Amino acid sequence: MKLKAKSDRVIITNAEFATRPKCLDSRHRPIIDNLYNILMVKISVSKARERLSEVVEIAQTEPVELELYGRRAAVVISPSQYDEMLEALEESHDVTAFDIALAEEENNIPWEQVKRDLGWL
């Protein structure tokens, strides 16, 4: 893919979807990079409309940011990346709820007692 940088945005040229640069081999990338990609293809909504199938294809390996009048309008990501992000968000909410529950000063039941009550011991 032939990309040209223009200020803080990446402008995709006419050969936009011809090839795909491999900057990092996915085997060497930490799992967290799947949630926070550094590289992102940016394309205008009108160009994306013309080449939707190619945008969807690229979104399988990295997010594609759609711009409308030079501003972020949407991001296209793969279903698997969406699922990972949703799972991470749910985990974050669970951790927050757990921390709030631990901070409460009410009658907390010790973990060992809970395990005994459930028959785990």
UniProtKB/TrEMBL annotation:
Record-given protein name: Antitoxin
**What does it do?**
Antitoxin component of a type II toxin-antitoxin (TA) system.
Q: Which InterPro entries match?
A: Antitoxin_Phd/YefM (IPR006442), YefM-like_sf (IPR036165)
One Pfam family of this protein, by short name? PhdYeFM_antitox
Which NCBIfam families does this chain map to? phd_fam
Family indicated by similarity: Belongs to the phD/YefM antitoxin family.
